Amino acid sequence: MSVIYILLAISIVVAVGFFIAFIMAVKKGQYDDSYTPSVRMLFEDEIVKEKPNKTILTKKD
Amino acid sequence: MGHKTCFHCGLDSSSSEIIFDEKSFCCNGCKTVYEIFSVNDLTCYYDLQQAPGATPKDIEVKYNFLENAKIIEQLLEFDDGETQVISLYIPHIHCSSCIWILENLNRLNPAVSSSIVNFGKKNVRVTYNSETLSLKNLVTLLSSIGYEPFISLDDYSIGKKHIDRSLIYKLGVAGFAFGNVMFLSFPEYFQVGEFWLEQYKHLFRWLMFFFSLPVVFYSAQDYFVSAFKGLQSKILNIDVPIALGVVVLFIRSTTEIIFDVGSGFFDSLTGLIFFLLLGKFFQQKTYTFLSFERDYKSYFPIGITKISSEGNEESIQVYDIKKGDRLLIRNEELIPVDCILIKGKARIDYSFVTGESKTVSKQSGDKLFAGGKQLEGSIEVDVLKTVEQSYLTQLWSNDVFKKNKELSFTNITNSISKRFTMAILLIAFLATAYWLIFDSSKAINVFTSVLIIACPCAIALSAPFTFGNILRILGKKKFYLKNASVIEQLAKINTIIFDKTGTITANKETSISYEGSQLSIDEESLLKNTLRGSNHPLSRSLYQLLNEHDIVSLDYFEEHLGKGIEAVYNNRKIKIGSAPFIGFTSNTTTLNTTVHISSNNKYKGTFTFYNKYRKGLSKLFNNLKNNYDLVILSGDNEGEKANLKKLLPTKTKLIFNQKPEDKLEYIKYHQTEGAKVLMIGDGLNDAGALAQSDVGIAISENVNVFSPACDAILDASKFDQLHHYIKISKSAIKIIKWSFLLSFLYNIIGLYFAITGQLAPVVAAILMPLSSISIVAFTTIATNIIGRKLD
């Protein structure tokens, strides 16, 4: 039954792993803007439409 | 003529004849943006949302100050000489098309390596190569596609702003510990005497102890700090019993596992803090795209053009302006300092400062005050005072701007907490005294149990969840509150003060009446065609009013700045403008804005411009008159007095010619007499009054653009709903009182277990989350029900 030590150790390691992932996500700013990413992910399809031979024009004289 | 709308911006385009790619546009600006997008294959901008764009404005010289290295350095977030990062606030961001086009900036200019939009904050963070693209060109590029960034003095040190994420960390730590402790204490709940569980329970308990350490010492630290501060200033705030409960829970649980007498209450401890922080997080809903702390800095430009003694133009920072400098103020630019007009004719709009909507004409040699906006051509001025010493900015040295309104009143939770804490301590001591006499072994157990079970988690949660939800409901109705305490203040209001211009009148709309001899069809056609050529705001409103006529090309047209317009067609001469300009001496002096007309040197009549009051104004005042004292406090002249008297209930006080300081003093005086004042204003001239009042609401036609420092921002379209919003805040207080009652019930049940000395960890573990969750459910359902009544 001392296997419970190993199981406990594993469960805590997994839990702490997720906890660290959470801290890193906060640090990277994932919780700063909770709206824009939900819109951004819907754009993927449109961007593929890009044609390779386009010329770049900027409004500069 | 069929009704058409501009493909780019959605405005009416039936009067313009700009057709491109079989699509109609309202102006060349919109067409140009469409061209840029179609050439660069970015037209799916229009697929995502119909008519998402804004008309680009002509800004060639406006951003010259972005060539000044010192200003650039202050604005940038990051700069290594080659790569630069800047966050720009763009008020126009409003839909998914905006996000899409701004995140595809690199297809318009390859020097942009990435651009990320934060929709909530309405800003875009652009990383670009400064060797091929200067900041000024980047801003010009954004403006040319209709996304003009707003750069003000407020942004001056924006790159150094620190984001506070500590609440999320604390909540995360508490949640993590709560879950694990709950999991580890599960076997003990059932008290099975199973052999292996007996064997390992010590290990489990010590693991729980270690999990709760960061919760007590990190997540809960705000409660200890707040309780300590409260005690220091002799206030028993709600954090005192919470901190007491947490300390007792932790010490008792730790002693229990050390002496092996029980499993402790680590589950309740971590759960308690997790729920409390959750409430805080929920209430912390803020409108990131709105700013409630604006002062003159958000209105003022960062840079201004200085003319050196050799006659060269140079962009300098506003703070670098010195007495005696010669400045060039262009059309539509704000005057940042008090100065003397040297060259050019000034027509200044002081509505920011005084609330007076009429523009003022100035001749060279006249004094100009900071905060005015030049409306006609460019002028040159000599500086009299620096930015900080100017008339307008001195208003901000008044003490009201330093006071924190939130700290100066006891909120509903804290006012109940005082009696609650006293009662709990009394019960704890009485129960202990009783057990000391009858069974002293149980005394300490009972004492701690009372403090644990009475820990006012449910009480502390009532207000945050109610207010948080109300905040969201009102936000959906376009009434944006700065924080939860505003709701409480709003419920206590007994006096409502309105500003006039821009608050009860609509900024853009005026009603116009004509007096004089009837104009013939020819004259009216000529008048309309003459007005077509003028860009003066009065000409534009008059033009909109007149009937449609054929477009003719005039034989002669001249606009005299500050005076009027003169035009000739088919030997018919028309003059439109001020009374002296058309040679008419007015015998009745009217305080309203007027435009006079003469045809072939014969006086025809006068157009008088009246303020147009907001829709539902009388209705709103009639709804409010029974419960509140109503006052109109205006910086304007008395021209509208008779008109207002007709519109509003008779007991409404009308006070005119009030300077910004007068308004502040008026409110201060009435507050000393016990009035709880709600001030509703719009301009910088109301800033002092908004800060002094108990609740200051800024009304805004476009919530994204300007509003002075205030407690709440109300969208102008919802002005007639104001009485509903005040009613809701009163209902919110009622809901909180009911949920206090509910949580007292739970406390009585809990106290029964505690006093009789039978508080088992499992009882605490059930009772605490149950009370918290039912309070949350009750407040959420109740607030949603009153929210539904709003429509």
UniProtKB/TrEMBL annotation, chain A:
Transmembrane annotation, as ranges: 6-26
Keywords, alphabetical: Membrane, Transmembrane, Transmembrane helix
One Pfam family cited in the UniProt record for this chain: FixS
Official protein name in the record: Cbb3-type cytochrome oxidase assembly protein CcoS
Native source organism of the sequence: Flaviramulus multivorans
From TrEMBL, chain B:
Name assigned to this protein: Heavy metal translocating P-type ATPase metal-binding domain-containing protein
Assigned protein family: Belongs to the cation transport ATPase (P-type) (TC 3.A.3) family. Type IB subfamily.
Origin species: Flaviramulus multivorans
Residue intervals of the HMA domain: 84-150
Keywords from the named record: Cell membrane, Ion transport, Magnesium, Membrane, Metal-binding, Phosphoprotein, Translocase, Transmembrane, Transmembrane helix, Transport
Pfam families attached to this UniProt entry: ATPase-cat_bd, E1-E2_ATPase, Hydrolase
Domain of life: Bacteria
Compartment(s) where it occurs, according to its Swiss-Prot or TrEMBL record: Cell membrane
Transmembrane regions: 167-186, 206-228, 235-251, 257-278, 420-438, 444-471, 735-755, 761-786
Chief place where the protein resides: membrane
Membrane-related topology note: Multi-pass membrane protein
